[in-house]
Automatic annotation (TrEMBL):
<protein>
    <submittedName>
        <fullName>GTP-binding protein</fullName>
    </submittedName>
</protein>
<dbReference type="InterPro" id="IPR027417">
    <property type="entry name" value="P-loop_NTPase"/>
</dbReference>
Length: 500
């Protein structure tokens, strides 16, 4: 078996073949676990449920002979007893230890690294903190008991999927923050990785699948029964048999996500808020108007969803005081726009007829907005500096009032790319329109030129700004000719997915 070598000359284990991708995450974990410095080290691994965090940590301890403990909700006494039993099985003593408190337990855990670097994983650490609020202080004392850090080579990794509590435990104001050498977040696969994971060689199919299940690792094998669509012609049938099938876990997963993250009293409003945002309400005020709820209640609900990683917010590219919202998890957007209005029908009718009714909404709202999101991700992650003339640092949605129509709709750009300086003050590299189901022509290029004129009148430097059109359908010969003259950037599905 081949190995990589860390800076400490300790061989790093190969990533197990059963783990899809995650090269950077595995490298970071392996380097941390094999660090040969003669003092205990602390690492933090966070990420929402279903992203494969536990899978990675279990594989790491398996590859290096480490110790893994998955915490559960319960009492302090029960957790200490479970931990003692599992540690006994790992070290093979004649009988488990009987600890009186966490001080003894932490001391025994760190003692595993007295002779060699060894990964010691305590997963779902927030569950233990809820039972034992003093545990962070116990850890801090254990690591600081000796000047220069605790002797030994224990590599303690604390994992957690409760994002709000993980943030509080390891924020810059936390005493544990200064002790930790590794802060790793395990997120969803990007759209290109997800296409490979779902074996979607057709980029059009890849967009549709990603608009339903996103890049969440667990959804393929554990929730869809390893059922992948055979091709674009099989997409509708796949949705019916894998996503809208009451016998598959994906059917109830959107509700489980809310139940696991949100307190009971806030769930109804949070479901309604997700429906509003996924349907196009992109500001807090718009959501409140849509729900007919007080702005204070709406603000609390949105803050709760953002804190748990279910909603994301970003500044408008042209109006930095305007904060736009979007649903972070594609399955939640799919559910709340296309499926939730028809949930009762699914109880009475077959999935095929219900999906036939829901499909137009999916195409016009879910897939269309999701395609724009993929285009923004492409601009930042995969478009090199040669595409826009400099390296992109942000890609966001932007809108402005049209001075030609003072009482009309705003002018909007789906993909506003900025360089050095970020989303607010960065160099404006490109403004673009994204159309999932629209064949694009010179009309779209003319709209972009008009937008650039308005931006120039407002004082924005557009000297080197490049118009861009992103389409899931295609471009007219006239627009291709404009591309050949260097007047516009054209991005189709093959380019998005690296096939061209």
């Amino acid at each position: 078996m081949g190995v990589a070598v860390s800076s400490s000359d300790i061989p790093l284990p190969d990533k197990p073949q059963k783990i899809f991708d995650r090269e950077a995450e595995w490298q970071a974990l392996a380097e941390f676990a094999c660090d040969s410095r003669a003092e205990a080290r602390l690492g933090v691994v966070s990420g929402r449920l279903r992203q494969g965090k536990t899978y990675l940590l279990e594989a790491l301890t398996g590859a290096l002979g480490g110790f893994y403990f998955g915490a559960q909700q319960g009492t302090e006494t029960e957790s200490l007893s479970r931990l003692a039993d599992e540690l006994a099985r790992h070290t093979n003593p004649s009988s488990p230890r009987h600890w009186h408190d966490w001080e003894d337990a932490v001391a025994d855990l760190l003692a595993l690294g007295d002779r060699r670097p060894v990964p010691i994983v305590v997963d779902e650490f927030p569950d233990l903190v809820r039972q034992s609020p003093s545990l962070p202080s116990v850890l801090h004392s254990a690591f600081r008991r000796h000047d220069g850090g605790r002797p030994g080579k224990a590599r303690l990794l604390l994992g957690g999927s409760s994002l709000p509590l993980m943030h509080r435990l390891f924020s810059t104001a936390s005493p544990l923050r200064e002790l930790s050498d590794l802060h790793l977040t395990v997120g969803p696969l990007d759209f290109r990785q997800a296409a490979r994971f779902w074996e979607a060689d057709d980029p059009g199919l890849a967009v549709l699948v990603h608009a339903v299940v996103g890049g969440t690792i667990a959804y393929r094998r554990d929730y869809a029964g390893d059922d992948v669509p055979a091709g674009r012609d099989d997409f509708d049938a796949w949705v019916c048999r894998a996503v809208l099938n009451p016998g598959r876990p994906l059917f109830r997963e959107p509700y489980h996500l809310i139940q696991e993250e949100i307190d009971h009293k806030d769930r109804p409003l949070c479901h309604s808020a997700l429906s509003a945002v996924a349907s196009g309400c992109s500001t807090q005020g718009q959501v409140a108007d849509c729900l007919g709820a007080p702005l204070t209640d709406t603000a609390r609900c949105i803050a709760l969803l953002r804190e748990n990683g279910l909603l994301q917010s970003e500044e408008d590219a042209f109006r930095p005081n305007l904060i736009r919202l979007r649903v972070a998890e594609p399955l939640l957007a799919f559910e709340h726009v296309a499926v939730r209005p028809l949930r009762s029908a699914l109880e009475q009718r077959d999935a095929v007829s219900v999906w036939k009714q829901a499909r137009p909404v999916f195409d016009s709202v879910v897939a269309r907005s999701h395609f724009a999101r993929i285009c923004r991700d492409w601009a930042v992650r995969f478009a090199g500096p040669d595409v826009f003339g400099a390296r992109p640092t942000s890609a966001t949605h932007g809108s402005l009032p049209d001075p030609a129509f003072p009482h009309g709709a705003d002018m909007a750009a789906d993909v506003v790319v900025r360089g050095h300086g970020g989303a607010r003050n960065g160099t404006l590299l490109s403004v673009g329109l994204a159309r999932w189901d629209e064949f694009m022509d010179l009309d779209q290029l003319q709209r972009l030129r008009h937008l650039l004129d308005v931006l120039a009148d407002r004082g924005e430097d557009v000297t080197h700004t490049r118009p861009a059109c992103y389409s899931g359908t295609g471009f007219s010969p006239a627009l291709r000719a404009a591309e050949a003259r260097g007047q516009v950037i054209l991005v189709d599905l093959d380019r998005l997915y690296g096939h061209a």
